[in-house]
């Protein structure tokens, strides 16, 4: 059964899909948005938002434990996981309701159901066909596991399972030391879990600058979070008390449960992409810099496109594609210009190139770096946080990397993004006035130092 033809048919209502829909509707394009689950996708319901709520609950627990250091007498009686979940779910529900209202008011045709690409310009849902002059694929991602490692939802779990636990596990093994792994390890430790991370790569948060990884590892040691790096997983066995994990070298670790956090895979199987001739690689949809697939008038956005799997990347790609379809000729998105934040304790925030990648791109003799220790920052001392801001620049050129570690540094990524994307020189940032006392000041101080005029720092 065929219906009317739309300017844009979007398959997937996560960050990339709904952003495409909202922007396309603003540009007076007719839009149908198809989602098999809930509007907002993984980020809103099973990822970014609930995870950060869990982390904040853990932060409150830590602050209560440590309150006497600030002259406040308080006692942590316990963790009410039902209450934590109610708080978390309340945040999600409020945002979900708001997003539903936005889509409804934008005159978008919203379709609930499992969509399948049945022709290059057609998506079918429950026998109803939606034809688009343009089609946007935005089907998102799922929690990956390793070959032979089955998720049972009770002892061997994914991040989605972890967000729905009705208890604080006494102990947990986290398989994977990337963003998802360290965030859950951090949250669980704050809530009282004995945590060990297993990572096959040589360091935690291995995609970040090496000095950032070292700082996170130091902080985790101090917090009592165990980790084994350079140790690939071999097998897991069930025990009376939970699980026993064997890692390279034959070492075993036991805990109540195993969280598998080895990354996310693209949700592209059995949706008709291959049948319609969409070019794929390892399950990802291949696009050019304008997010066009090899099939005319078919675009792809978000986690199914190779690159950073970040909600704000998909969101921006959605806006880009809507404007591209509308003939606005938007500037291509610079992947290195997308901010990255890991919301562990301490937080990690970064922009642009690591020092190693900058040297690889420009040559070791053409790259300079500077570390500003947050010990010299008044607000950081008030917060009792440790860490640094590291700048990477091309000699006599712009700043090409900003890497930060410490409490709340994710809130500094906005200015860091402007510095990188506007190709600012250290001297240009140094002349800007940064409010005192703020952690934002530390960005100014770091640029003062790199510009050759350090004040609260050594050259």
UniProtKB/TrEMBL annotation:
Gene3D superfamilies: 3.30.390.30, FAD/NAD(P)-binding domain. SUPFAM superfamilies: FAD/NAD(P)-binding domain, FAD/NAD-linked reductases, dimerisation (C-terminal) domain. GO terms for biological process: 2-oxoglutarate metabolic process. Disulfide bonds join 43-48. Its main location: cytoplasm. The active site is at residue 436. It catalyses: N(6)-[(R)-dihydrolipoyl]-L-lysyl-[protein] + NAD(+) = N(6)-[(R)-lipoyl]-L-lysyl-[protein] + NADH + H(+). GO terms for molecular function: dihydrolipoyl dehydrogenase (NADH) activity; flavin adenine dinucleotide binding. Transmembrane segments: none annotated. One of its GO terms (cellular component) is cytoplasm. Its cofactor is FAD. Residues 338-446 form the Pyridine nucleotide-disulphide oxidoreductase dimerisation domain. FAD binds at residues 52, 115, 139-141, 303. Keywords: Cytoplasm, Disulfide bond, FAD, Flavoprotein, NAD, Nucleotide-binding, Oxidoreductase, Redox-active center. NAD(+) binds at residues 176-183, 199, 263. Binds 1 FAD per subunit. Its EC number is 1.8.1.4. PANTHER family: DIHYDROLIPOYL DEHYDROGENASE, DISULFIDE OXIDOREDUCTASE. The active site is a redox-active disulfide bond. Belongs to the class-I pyridine nucleotide-disulfide oxidoreductase family. This is Dihydrolipoyl dehydrogenase. The lineage of its organism: Bacteria, Bacillati, Actinomycetota, Actinomycetes, Micromonosporales. The gene is pdhD_2.
